[in-house]
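Protein in question quoted in full.
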Amino acid sequence: MQWTLVIPLKPLARAKSRLADTADDGVRPGLALAFAQDTVAAAVACPAVSDVAVVTDDELAGRELAALGARIVPDSPGSGLNAALAHGAAVVRTMRPGAAVAALNADLPALRPAELSRVLAAASQFPRAFLADAAALGTTLLAAAGDRELRPAFGVDSRSRHRASGAVELALTGVDSVRQDVDTAADLRAALTLGVGPHTAAASAGLLIPGP
């Protein structure tokens, strides 16, 4: 099965506010862009992925991610993460009816194409499926077969909400790069330990990351 990934990205100036203890207002936009660049580059390189659609209204991010091979979908709803994902999935299926669609976080800077392939292969066995994040509270990927609506419920406690919606939780090991999103300094430290892509490596060089 070939997948289209829908990746939402808020305006860079408002992204990653929880990293304020690690990166100041002048640094965080570039860091958020770097996360998205490494995420998109790995997604485009994944053999199971036929197309990557990034939903964003940020002009700089749109240019940079399009250069990596992503299709840019304007966030016309402008109503938050889940509305952006539903809109992106609808746009994809208008162009490719019956496409298998998966929502993927934009902040997976350690993402490995081979691990993403494993997750998508497992998701293809179910009408809807999701992968919990490293903290086991959120979600990094939500997949829907071509005959099913995506029904995204990202945000606080999205793992519980996606499970309650009927999506199957994927019980996979060895896919840490697909689980490790970055919201906090501890998340960034964990991603760096896994090994991030070149954009994040450059953007995070010299940062003093607080922690134990």
